[in-house]
Write a structure and sequence with these properties.
Layout (H helix, E strand, L loop, with lengths): L2 H18 L13 H8 L3 E3 L9 E4 L13 E4 L9 H15 L7 H7 L5 H19 L1 E6 L5 E4 L17 E6 L8
Parallel strand pairs: 1-3
Antiparallel strand pairs: 2-3, 4-5, 4-6
Helix pairs in contact: 1-3
The chain binds zinc ion (2 copies).
The site of one zinc ion has 5 residues, from α3.
Length: 186
């Protein structure tokens, strides 16, 4: 990882952890202790590979035979989160992964309650859906469809000109994305 990426990721870590430090319940008790936050700050964070392009973030056990914990996990984030328009959302994704790191494996009620501590959670969901759509577009295959006879050619690139015709019947071809459902967030 080059210096620039390293800086971006450590800044993000710092931002998220300093927000987590101020989350308190109605008795003014903190949700995340200093010790937990210290452990979280030591977790390796890097970028997702192209194979997991449709995910926003992913937490995995380092040792698959042991339970998920701050000392037994690593976090990967989608590189697209570091485009300026997604920067605030990136904090939310890392927060989500940090909740997993603390041993909350599934998205159960307790998990969602912690997740809801994040400010502007609704806005985060909206931006999240926008990112999902963008990632789906990148992954989509394209179908050149003949408007006259219905003939379909699949293409992996969106490169297309509006004046393409089907050789056999001379119908005009249209370019339609084939969108597959993305894997669940985790
Ligand atoms: Zn045709
Ligand atoms: Zn998750």
């Amino acid at each position: 990882m080059d210096d620039n990426n390293y800086q971006i990721l450590s800044q993000l870590r710092e931002n998220v952890i300093s927000k987590m430090r101020i989350f308190v319940d109605k008795n003014n008790e903190r949700f995340f202790s200093d010790n937990e936050l210290l452990q979280l700050s030591d977790i390796e964070v890097s970028f997702l590979s192209r194979n997991s392009i449709s995910r926003h973030g992913l937490t995995t056990n380092l040792d698959k035979s042991k339970k998920l914990s701050p000392s037994n996990c690593k976090v990967k984030l989608n590189k697209k989160l570091f485009e300026e328009k997604y920067f605030l959302y990136a904090e939310f994704v890392l927060f989500h992964e940090y909740i997993h790191c603390l041993g909350n494996f599934s998205h159960d009620k307790n998990f969602r309650q912690l997740e809801n501590l994040w400010p502007e959670k609704k806005q985060m969901n909206i931006i999240g859906r926008q990112l999902t759509r963008e990632l789906q577009e990148i992954k989509a295959q394209w179908a050149w469809t003949c408007s006259k006879c219905g003939f379909v050619v699949k293409r992996s690139s969106r490169k297309f000109r509006s004046n393409y015709f089907h050789k056999e019947c001379l119908g005009k071809l249209k370019n339609i994305p084939i969108i597959r459902p993305t894997s669940l967030e985790h």
